[in-house]
Amino acid sequence: MLRRTSVATIGLAIGSILSVLGMAGYIRSETTLNVVTFFIGVPVLVGALALKAAELEPVPLKSEPSAEILALRESQATPTQNQVREDVTRYRYGQTVHLDIALERLGLKPSFVDECPILVGLRETTTDGAYTLVLEFETPHVPFEDWKKKEDRFAAFFGPGIAALVEQPDKDRVDISLIAKP
């Protein structure tokens, strides 16, 4: 729950309240209230605005995992699969897209930010009885062939104990299945 809470939004609320209290203290000539709340509230508000500008929202789960999937996750998921799932389902700050470093190292990040593949969804499923984490990318500027060529590199990049499968369900979409090897 806390992972899906925006620190920037909390900061905006606290900074706004403190700034308004500081202004009220100034208007009512209450020096102590004015100084303490205004000089704390404004920096918190400005910092929260900066965080909000650099905020990257969590990737939505396409469906809630069933009890069977949760049991498989507990017993088979690799630390890398868990880390990827946790990282992309929380707010991030200072990144342009989720998994940008991974995309860059795999050679799938174009030079222009606007052309970068965007992680639009996450699914947990099974493949032949093995826990599978599916990353759904919207990728109109990177051809499917480039993704398919890197299929072996995905398995190596995301660590031991993982097999990777690259599929194209739609024209501008690519699904990367990270399959745990039990």
Question: Could you characterize what this model shows?
Answer:
The strands form two sheets. This protein has a four-stranded antiparallel beta sheet. The protein has a two-stranded antiparallel ribbon with strand order 1-2. It has helices spanning 7-27, 31-53, 67-76, 79-88, 100-105, 144-149, 151-157, and strands at residues 55-56, 92-93, 118-127, 130-138, 162-170, 173-180. It is elongated, with a radius of gyration of 22 Å. The protein has two domains: 2-53, no CATH class; 56-180, Threonyl-tRNA Synthetase, Chain A, domain 2 (2-Layer Sandwich), CATH 3.30.980. 46% of the residues lie in helices and 22% in strands. It is of the alpha+beta class.
Counted up, domains total: 2
| Percent in strands | 15-25%
- Distance from first to last alpha carbon: 30 Å
> What is the 3D shape?
elongated
Task: Give the class-level CATH name of the largest domain.
Answer: Alpha Beta
Which regions contain 5 or more consecutive residues with pLDDT less than 50? none
Topology order in helix (H) and strand (E) letters: HHEHHEHEEHHEE
Helix content: 40-55%
Structural class computed from helices and strand pairing = alpha+beta
Number of continuous helical runs: 7
Rg from C-alpha positions? Answer: 22 Å
What number is the mean pLDDT? 89
Give me the CATH fold name of the largest domain: Threonyl-tRNA Synthetase, Chain A, domain 2
Largest sheet, order of strands side by side? 3-4-6-5
Strand count, sense and closure of the main sheet? 4 strands, antiparallel
Under the CATH scheme, which architecture of the largest domain would be assigned?
A: 2-Layer Sandwich
